[in-house]
Amino acid sequence: MKDYIVKDPWKIIEDTFKQEYHKVTESLCSIGNGMIGHRGNFEEYYSGETLQGNYIAGIYYPDKTRVGWWKNGYPEYFAKVLNSANWIGIDVWFGDIRLDLNHAEILSYKRELDMQSGILSRQVHLAIHHIECKISTERFCSYVDKEIGWSKYSIESVNYSGPITLESFVDFNVRNQDANYDENFWDFHCQHIDVEWGHVFCKTKKTDFKVCAGFKSKVEIDDQISADKCCSSSERKVGHIYSIDINGGQLVTLTKCAAIISEFHHGDVRLTDLCREKLDQATQEGYPNAKEKHKKAWLDKWIQSDIKIEGDISAQQGIRFNIFHLNQTYTGTDSRLNIGPKGFTGEKYGGSTYWDTEAYCLPFYLSTATSSVAKNLLIYRYNHLQKAIENAAKLGFSDGAALYPMVTINGEECHNEWEITFEEIHRNGAIAYAIYDYVNHTGDMSYLHDYGLDVLVAICRFWKQRVNWSNHKEQYVILGVTGPNEYENNVNNNWYTNYIASWCLRYTMDCLSNLKGNAEDVYDELIGKLKISPDELEKWTHIIANMYYPYDENEQIYLQQEGFLDKEIIPVTEIPKAENPINQHWSWDRILRSCFIKQADVLQGFYFFEDDFTDEELSRHFDFYEPITVHESSLSPCVHSILACRLGNIDKAYEMYLRTARLDVDDYNNDTEDGLHITSMAGTWMTITKGFAGMRVKEGLVTFDPTCPENWSGYSFSIQHAGQLISITIKSELIILKNHDENAVRIKLKEDIFELNGLESKTIVLTR
Amino acid sequence: MKDYIVKDPWKIIEDTFKQEYHKVTESLCSIGNGMIGHRGNFEEYYSGETLQGNYIAGIYYPDKTRVGWWKNGYPEYFAKVLNSANWIGIDVWFGDIRLDLNHAEILSYKRELDMQSGILSRQVHLAIHHIECKISTERFCSYVDKEIGWSKYSIESVNYSGPITLESFVDFNVRNQDANYDENFWDFHCQHIDVEWGHVFCKTKKTDFKVCAGFKSKVEIDDQISADKCCSSSERKVGHIYSIDINGGQLVTLTKCAAIISEFHHGDVRLTDLCREKLDQATQEGYPNAKEKHKKAWLDKWIQSDIKIEGDISAQQGIRFNIFHLNQTYTGTDSRLNIGPKGFTGEKYGGSTYWDTEAYCLPFYLSTATSSVAKNLLIYRYNHLQKAIENAAKLGFSDGAALYPMVTINGEECHNEWEITFEEIHRNGAIAYAIYDYVNHTGDMSYLHDYGLDVLVAICRFWKQRVNWSNHKEQYVILGVTGPNEYENNVNNNWYTNYIASWCLRYTMDCLSNLKGNAEDVYDELIGKLKISPDELEKWTHIIANMYYPYDENEQIYLQQEGFLDKEIIPVTEIPKAENPINQHWSWDRILRSCFIKQADVLQGFYFFEDDFTDEELSRHFDFYEPITVHESSLSPCVHSILACRLGNIDKAYEMYLRTARLDVDDYNNDTEDGLHITSMAGTWMTITKGFAGMRVKEGLVTFDPTCPENWSGYSFSIQHAGQLISITIKSELIILKNHDENAVRIKLKEDIFELNGLESKTIVLTR
C-alpha cells in the first residue's frame, strides 16, 4: 500500500516527483472521454520507467493465443486493446541538452489531475546541467468533441539564454508491452507533414482498423506567436520543430491540438480529410473555448453522478476517483463499446468485456445516466447473440443455445483457461440478470420483446442442455463448473450457478407469460420467430422444479458446491500474515482444496436474489461464508458490504468498503502501475448507494434504507430515475430528499413513501 | 491407421518410398543403444518433409516454460531432450546436381530396419536428371561401444560418368522443433578438421553439458581406397570432401565412424582427446568387426527378451518392434537415465520421466534383464528424493514429505498444467509400488533399508499431510486430485488415489515391521535416521483405518470419484463414430463432465492390487468401467487386457491387445511422425506375459496361468528370474517350460509346482 497522493476532495495530486511510483501515477492520472484516452505519461522524453499508453475505444487486435498445453475448443486469439499513436509528445532541447526529468534536479514538482474538470496538469521547477527552468503543462481529452485532445506546454527560462528547440509530434511507433509474441500490431498506411498540420495514418493488422492521428501546433513567446517552424518526418512519426532563442525570464508556450479519427467511428470516409477538418474546426474555436466547454461538460456529468462525503476527505477523494474513471471509460453512446477491465489506463487483460459489466457496472450507469446508456450495454450483448450461439456450438450445444464468452471484444471468446473459458458459465446468468435489472429500473418492457427475450431464450436453451438428470439424485445437476469464486475449479453443483440457471428459466417464463397476457400478438410472433414449443417450456418447468441445490441440514446452509463441508473450515484470520494474499504464496492446488473463497459466490446469489431469502437465512450464510472469504478479487468486498448493511452490521460493511474505495489511489494490490481496476470501481459506488444508502428499485419505486458510517458526518448523491434527477443527503440524524425535476416524484424511505413535487426537497429527521 | 510396412517377423520394411509417410518411417526406423540414438533420417540431403533427430541420453535443456496464465507453483522450465549433432550426414553431388530423393525418380526402393541385429539399411535405385545410380546404405549405433556409430554409404553409377562429390560431415547446426521460444540450445565451443578426423564441440546453454561429436571417414572406389580428400569447415560443421571421377558401373563406398562423447558420461576430462582416441580404436577395429560384435550383442539381448508368436506374423512383428525399442531406449547401466516417452525417436514431451516408468516399464526390465537394470530405475528416484522433498515444500508440505514430479529429467518438476502438475499425485503411489514390485520380484530385501524405505517414508509423509479429516464424513478424504484417468480433473476422493495412498502407508509399515523383526539394529538405525516417531506411525495407522472410499451400495462398486454416478452413464459404443477420439472432437469441459474414461483408473487399482479383490468384485467393476473407457491413452488397453484374461474373457483381452500391439507400426493415432510411444510398448509386453500367460511372481515363485489367443498357434518367451533364464512356450494344448540355467528352478503352473533341473525342459499337456 502506498500513501503519497495528497488528500483532496477533487484532485489527485502528486506533490513531489516519486520516480519509483511513476508508472502508478501514470495510471492514476489517465484521462479519457469514452472514445480516446491515455495514461498520464509525460509530454517530453523520459528515460526512466514508464508505460506509454494511448488508446482508442473499440480498436483491438487479435493477438495469437499463447498456451502451454492446448485444449480442444480454445480460441485462436485474445482480442487486445491496442496501444495507438502517441499524440501528446513534445520533445524539448536546450541547445544539445535534452529535457529529461529522469536526469534533472527537481526543485519543485506538482502533478495534478483535476477530476472535477477532467484536466491533467503539471508544474515543475527543475535544473538540468545548470539550466534552470519552469515547466507548466495542461492537457485534456475533450468531453465535448471526443476525437479531439488538447495540450498546452509552457517553459519559462529562469537563468538560461540560448537556443531552445521544441518538437511537437505524433508518433505511431508503438507496441503493446503484453503482446504474446512481441509483434507489431500496426501496418503503416501514409503520413504527411506541412507547416499547417501533420498526420500519421496506420491500420491494424488482421482487423484492418484504420486510424488517422493528426495534429496542429503553435508556439508563443511571451504571448507573441512565433513563426519559426520547420517540419520533421521519419518512419511513422511527423512533427513541427520550433527553434527559438530564449532569454532568462522568457516564456515559451506550445499549444497543440490533436485529432484521432478512426474508421471504427466513421465508416468508409476519407479519414485524412476528416482529420484535417476536425483540426481546423477545433483550432478555430481555440484552446480557451474548448477548455471551457470541456469543463462544463464534466460539471454536468458530476451533477448526475457525484457522491459527496462529509467529514472524510480520504473517502471523498476515493469515491470521486472511482466515479471519474467510470465516466471516462464509458459514456454509453455506442453499443459496440463496453467497459474494459483497465479502461484507457493500461493494456493488461486486453480491453475486453467480462461479466463485470453486467454484475457490477450496469447499476452505476443505470442510476447516473439516461437509460440509453445502460441500454447500450445490453444491446452490446444482443448484437453478440449470434456469436454466443456459435460459441456454444463449438462446445457441443445446439438448437440456438447461447454461451456468452468469458472475455470478449467482438463477441468471440478470447479466454484460454479451460476452467474459466468452458466452465465459468454462470456469466450467462449475469447477462440475463442485467436484462432483469434494466427492465426493473427503467420499466422499459419493450426492450424485452425487441431484444431481451431473444437473448433470454438462447440462454435458457443453454441451461436446458447444460444440466443433466442424475439418476442417482433424481434431480437435475450441473457438473463441472467454476463459480464466481475462482478459487474452486471444475466443481459439481455450484449453488450459485444452479440457482441462477434456474432463475433464468423462471424469469424468462415469467416474461413470456407477461407478454402473453399483455400483448398476445407480439407474444405469438415471438414464439414463432424463436420456435418455442410447448415441450420446450415444459422441459424448462421440469428443470426449475427439480434442480438440485447442495444443502447441509446440520449447518442449514446452501453449500457453495457439493462436498464443500469435506474441507477443513478455517477462518481467514488463521492464515499467517506472511502468506497473504494466498494467490501470491500458495500453489494453486492448495488454494483449490482450501475452504478460502476469492470472491462472493453463494453470497453473490444472496445479493442478486435478495428477496428470495429471509434476513435470518442471509445472516446464517453471511456468518458462514464471510469469515472464510479472502476477497482477493476487487469485485468481492462490495457485495459483502451491501449484505452487511442489510444485516445492520455497519462496522463490517465499512471495513469492506475501505478495501476497495482507495484500491488504486493507494495502490493496495501493488499492481496499479499496470492500469486501474475500472470495473471494481463501480462496486465501490454500489457499496455507498445500495449498501449504506440501501437504495433499491422495486415496482418502479426508488427506495432507500439508509445508514451513515460513524466517521462520516454525512453523504449525498444523485440518481437518475425514470428520466428524473433525484438526490439524497444522509446524515446520522436526518435525510434530505430532493427532486431536481419539474415533475413530481415518489420516493420510498424505509417503510414510508414520500411524494416530492417539482424541485421540492424534504428533510426527514430520523428517530432512533 | 496406415498399413504400408511389409509384414515380417524380424524386420520393419518400407518397400516403396512413401514420401507422405516419410516422417512416420523415420520414427519407426530410429536406432539407438541406450546412450545415443537417432531417427531414421536419410544420410544425404533431403528437401522434403523430415524431422531431423539425433539424441544423447541424459543431455537436456531447461526450456523456459510457456503458459497462457501463470499459476503460483509452476516450474520455470521444461527439461527437454536435445537435438544434438547430426553425424550421419553425407552429401552427394553429381557435378552440380545434388542428390535429393525428393526430386529424384525412384526406380526401386527399400528401407529396412533389421531388429534382430539393430541395423538400418536402404537400397535405392534412382534417376536424377538422367543420372541413374544405386544407393546402398547401412548404419548402426554400436550396442557394444555405446558412444560409437557406424555408417556405410555406397553409390553405384549405372549410366553416369563424371565428377561425383561426397561430403561426409558432422553438423551441430541443430534446433529442437518444439522449442518454446525458438531458441538455439547450444553454445559453440570449438571445432577442428584435418584429413584424419574432425570434430565439433558444443555445450548446452544453462545446463553446460559438453558434447564433442567427432568422425573419421574413408572412401573406396571399387574396393580401392581413395586418397583424394579435402577438408571443409563452416560454422559448427566440419567435413571431408571427396571429389571423384566415376564411370558407369563403378562403385563408391564411404565408410564413416562417429564418436559422440559427452561430459555427462565422462566427467571433467579432455573430451576432444577422448573423442579422437575412441575414433582411433574403433577404426582400428574396423567396420566389419564392429558390425559383428554389434550383431552378437543384439542376439544376446534377444535371447533374454524375445517373444515368439506362431501363426500371426503381424502380431510377431508388432511385439518384436516394441521389445526392440524398449531395449534401444534403456539398457539400465546408468541410474541417471530413464525411459523418456519418445526415447531416441522424437523430441515431443521432452525426454523426461513420467510415472509410466514405474507403472508400465519396470515389469519389462524386471523380467528381461538382470536385476541391476530395474534397480537402476529405482535408484534414479532415490537420487531424486531430496528434490522431491523440495518439490513438495514448494507446494506447502513440510517435514520431509516428498512429491515426485509428474515429469522430470533431473528430479525437478517440469510440467505446467495445474490439474496434472499439482494434482496427479497418485504418481507418488506408483513410485512406492515399483519398490514393492522390485522387492517382490527379486527378493532383494536389502534394497529396502539401503534405499527404498527412505523413499517410502517420505512418500508416506506426503500422504499424511495431503489427506484431511472430514468432519462431515468422519473419515479421511483426499480433495482436489486428478487420477490416472486424466479426463477428470480436480476431483474429490478418487478411489485409486485414496487406495494407493493408504496402501503406501500400509506397505511401508509392513516393511518397517518386517525389518524390526529381522534386523532390529538396522531398524533402529533407520528409525533414528528418518526420525520416525511412534506418534507418526500411529497417525499412519489411523489414516489406513479411516480412509474414505467412494462406494455405491446399489451398483456395489467403488466409484472412480465422489459423485461419479451423477453423470449420465453411456457406453462408448454410443459415441458417434465421427466424434472419435473424443479428445480431438469435444471441448475439454464436455470430456470432463462425460462419464468417459481415458485410461484405467479404478481398474488400475484392481490391476496393481489384484489380491485384495475377488474375481466377482473384479468382474463387477470391469463390467461397469470397461464399457465407458475410451482408451485414448496408449497405456490403457494393456491393463484392461490383463484383467480380461483373469476373468477368462480372452476375446476382450485380445481386442485390447490389438489396440496397442501395432500402435506405432500402423500409426494408429496419426502421431507416430512425432516419435514412438515407448512407454506404452512395455504395456504390450505385459499384455502377453502377465495377460495371456498369466505370469506373476508370488513369494519368490514364478507362476503362470496361461491361455492362448485363438488365432495364434502358440507363443513363447523367456524371463529372467532370480538370475536364472526360464522360458515358456504356450500352445493351445500344451505348455513347455524350460530352464536355461545350470541350477534347478521351481515354477508354478496354475495350481501345480514344477521343479526343473538344470537345463531341463518339461512339456505339460493341457486338459480341457
The stretches of 5 or more residues of chain A where confidence is low (pLDDT under 50) are none
Q: Give a short account of the largest sheet of chain A.
A: 10 strands, antiparallel
Mean pLDDT of chain A: 95
Q: Cα distance, first to last residue of chain A?
A: 38 Å
Brief characterization of the structure:
Two copies of one chain form a homodimer. The longest helix of chain A has 24 residues. Chain A has 768 residues and is α+β, with helices and mostly antiparallel strands.
How does this model look, in words?
The structure is a homodimer of 768-residue chains. With 768 residues, chain A is α+β, with helices and mostly antiparallel strands. Helices cover 33% and strands 25% of the residues of chain A. In chain A, strands 1, 9, 10, 11, 12, 14, 15, 16, 17 and 20 form a ten-stranded antiparallel β-sheet that branches. A five-stranded antiparallel β-sheet of chain A has the order 8-7-13-19-18, with no helix packed on it. In chain A, a hairpin with a 2-residue loop joins strand 18 and strand 19 (237-246). The two termini of chain A are 38 Å apart. The interface between A and B is large, with 49 and 49 residues.
